[in-house]
Specification:
- Helix content is about 25%, strand content about 35%.
- It has helices at about 30-45, 85-95, 110-120, 135-145, and strands at about 5-10, 20-25, 50, 65-70, 75-80, 100-105, 130-135, 150-160, 160-170, 170-175, 180.
- A hairpin with a 2-residue loop joins strand 8 (about 150-160) and strand 9.
- Helix 1 packs across helix 4.
- The longest helix has 13 residues, at about 30-45.
- The protein starts with a strand and ends with a strand.
């Protein structure tokens, strides 16, 4: 593991009772961008039993999720990939986690659209995948702000409309994002 980040979290949304602190390791092959996407994914999708880099208890699934929610029988019900993710992996993932909602988080709407185009070309299943493309300038600014210890205050976020407001390490962010479905 190359870096470790600590995020002190606070939320103003009563339906999003974030944990007080989250620690996230950055793997040897991961970038700060990957960590930022995982942080945003964790907060946007926060719910009971959601884990960053959670461990699967199923040898038939050969992949490690960036973010996962397991049900009480330890089957994935939500699977989130952050950043680079190949079409071949997504195709296999749809079969290996048939009951899970699958989301892919990208650092820009253009990257999300490029992935959708590749998914169509390879004829991946329809109505199985959800993608988010964030504002690339905001993502770059967040990457530049990440430190070993961080503070995030979440004011609000929603998918309808696709919008979020939060303070990260003393800077205010009020931004929308793009949601695509395939």
């Amino acid at each position: 593991m190359s870096n470790k980040y600590v995020f002190d979290l606070k939320s103003d949304e009563h339906h999003r009772p974030l944990p007080r602190r989250m620690t996230m390791g950055q793997g040897d092959n991961e970038t700060v961008l990957h960590s930022v996407l995982k942080l945003l994914g964790f907060i946007l999708f926060f719910r009971e039993r959601l884990e960053v880099g959670g461990k699967l208890h199923n040898d038939n699934i050969p992949f490690d999720p960036d973010i996962v929610q397991l049900d009480y029988t330890l089957r994935p019900v939500l699977w989130i990939e952050c950043g680079d993710c190949g079409v071949n992996k997504l195709n296999k993932l749809a079969v290996k986690v048939p009951d899970a909602e699958i989301w892919i988080l990208k650092s820009s709407p253009l990257e999300a659209q490029t992935l959708i185009t590749a998914m169509r070309k390879e004829e991946l299943r329809k109505d199985r995948y959800n993608l988010i493309g964030f504002d690339p300038d905001i993502i770059q600014e967040l990457c530049d702000l990440v430190r070993p210890r961080n503070e995030l205050f979440w004011l609000k976020g929603s998918f309808e409309p696709a919008h979020m407001e939060f303070d990260f390490n003393g800077l205010w962010f009020d931004t929308s994002f793009t949601v695509l479905r395939h």
